[in-house]
Structure to design on (539 residues):
């Protein structure tokens, strides 16, 4: 088993790791994380193993022992995978990365940023927040994503979050497929720059269209026997980049699947999921002359382990292909990681301001400050590794941000933080951001800030930058770029509000926070200059 690794050895070794480089772990407490992770796993050659009730058990640790991964990726936040699980895995000697947002769209976007350094396409699937209603639809969307090497992103009905548009722009995505029961004119308008394909209607209509498209590329099938939505979770251990995935809720679904298999000579056929239903499905298939292999267990992790063992060589082969492709993308990957470095620095600066605000209100922030110091060290290490090992740098940056973000989440739980605003933040559209910026409300308080602490220039600088970004967004015709500008404007104005509150309580703004504002604005200006230069080169 991999034990504690000295950073210097990581630097020397991770660039040429063989065997399973990564294993993803998801909770069975929701399905959108599973489907998004499974699409990423099919693209990158990474198995997805289920944590029953979000907890580590002997089946999962057995997979880790056999795989001996260089990196274990937790998909989902502390609500679905407890912070203690991360500590347990680290105590076993593994390097852990957590990809998460407060809302499932944000978690899927973090997956997309981590695994796709650039992408041609993305599959967006309607998400109502009800796994009972959404799981079968999202399983169909998984087919479209996995077979076309696209990230899969669940989106709230009727809304295209600004963060999503920004990521589509960052990853240079030029084709978007939207799968759902309906599509609003607003969503259609937001996506019209991305060669939008709509797969809309009831489940039968969607399934027929997806299957017709899938059979051009798929020659295998994974049947997920799952009367309940949380029984779909063993499927992530199958490499789905050449398979059609079909969810079976009852035996009534089987005749159609038999016809599909026989009409298209699909083989091999694998069955996973609920043991009782899986047994009945297998019997029916065999009675109709179809060769089938079953992977089932009392827990999803048991079935996932069996399936992963059977699929292991295929995962490794896919990983080898992806490694070769990445060799040709060294410059692209390095540039993406540099962008991530800038974004991580800004995010940590903003988290530091939030910690200072908590401290000004009398909260004990000693543990948060300790995590912040550790994060700064990781940032420095990442900066030094971008040229030599970009993937290591990316891993360090993720770790840096997560150290503070996760501890802050725990702290917010203690003080009964109101999450409604933050949840809304993650999924609001560009138009909603524009309507809610309210820069003038901060400007009206500038004199009060100056009177209170005398050094409110940092707040003024953030307000001015937010106004510049807002005005630039108003004149931008590219919707994705507009969304990115508005998101940046909002980050600046939120930062200004927080410094204003600190100013009123502390009667000063600490020098380190003022320095952070200077650095933040410099990074925004450098990013803008680089964007202009790219446009000139392209023209």
């Amino acid at each position: 088993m991999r034990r504690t690794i000295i950073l210097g050895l990581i630097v020397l070794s991770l660039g040429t790791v063989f065997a399973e480089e990564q294993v993803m772990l998801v909770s069975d407490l929701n399905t959108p994380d599973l489907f998004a992770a499974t699409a990423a796993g099919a693209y990158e050659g990474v198995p997805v193993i289920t944590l029953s009730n979000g907890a580590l058990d002997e089946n999962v640790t057995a997979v880790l022992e056999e795989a001996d991964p260089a990196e274990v990726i937790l998909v989902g936040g502390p609500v679905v995978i407890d912070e203690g699980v991360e500590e347990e895995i680290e105590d076993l000697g593994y390097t852990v990365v957590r990809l998460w947002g407060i809302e499932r769209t944000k978690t899927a976007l973090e997956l997309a940023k981590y695994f796709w350094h650039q992408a041609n396409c993305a599959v967006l699937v309607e998400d109502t927040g009800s796994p009972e209603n959404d799981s079968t639809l999202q399983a169909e969307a998984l087919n479209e994503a996995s077979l076309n090497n696209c990230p899969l992103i669940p989106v709230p009905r009727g809304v295209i979050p600004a963060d999503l548009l920004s990521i589509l722009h960052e990853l240079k995505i030029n084709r978007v497929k939207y799968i759902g029961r309906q599509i609003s004119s607003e969503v259609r308008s937001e996506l019209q720059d991305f060669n939008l394909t709509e797969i809309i209607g009831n489940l039968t209509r969607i399934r027929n269209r997806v299957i017709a498209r899938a059979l051009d590329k798929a020659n295998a099938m994974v049947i997920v026997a799952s009367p309940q939505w949380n029984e779909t979770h063993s499927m992530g251990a199958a490499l789905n980049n050449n398979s059609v995935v079909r969810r079976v809720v009852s035996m009534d679904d089987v005749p159609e699947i038999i016809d599909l298999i026989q009409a298209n000579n699909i083989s091999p056929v694998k069955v996973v999921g609920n043991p009782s239903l899986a047994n009945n499905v297998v019997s029916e298939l065999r009675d109709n002359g179809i060769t089938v292999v079953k992977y089932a267990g009392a827990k999803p992790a048991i079935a996932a382990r069996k399936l992963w063992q059977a699929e292991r060589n295929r995962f490794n082969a896919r990983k080898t292909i992806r490694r070769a492709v990445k060799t040709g993308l060294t410059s692209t990957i390095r540039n993406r990681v540099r962008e991530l470095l800038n974004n991580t620095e800004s995010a940590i600066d903003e988290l530091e301001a939030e910690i200072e605000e908590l401290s000004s209100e009398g909260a004990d922030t000693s543990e948060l400050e300790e995590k912040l110091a550790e994060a700064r060290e990781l940032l420095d290490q990442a900066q030094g590794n971008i040229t030599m090992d970009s993937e290591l740098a990316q891993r360090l940056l993720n770790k840096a941000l997560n150290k503070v973000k996760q501890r802050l989440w725990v702290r917010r739980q203690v003080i009964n933080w109101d999450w409604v605003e933050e949840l809304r933040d993650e999924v609001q559209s560009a138009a909603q951001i524009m309507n809610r910026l309210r820069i003038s409300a901060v400007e009206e308080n500038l004199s009060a800030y100056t009177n209170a602490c005398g050094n409110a220039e940092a707040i003024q600088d953030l307000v001015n930058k937010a106004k510049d970004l807002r005005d630039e967004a108003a004149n931008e015709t590219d919707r994705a770029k507009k969304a990115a500008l508005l998101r940046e404007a909002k980050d600046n104005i939120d930062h200004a509000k927080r410094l204003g509150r600190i100013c009123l309580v502390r009667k000063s703004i600490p020098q380190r926070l003022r320095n952070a504002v200077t650095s933040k604005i410099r990074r925004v200006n450098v990013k803008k200059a680089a964007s202009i230069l790219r446009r000139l080169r392209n023209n």
Observations:
- Confidence is low (pLDDT under 50) at residues 1-19.
- Residues 20 and 69 are 5 Å apart (CA to CA).
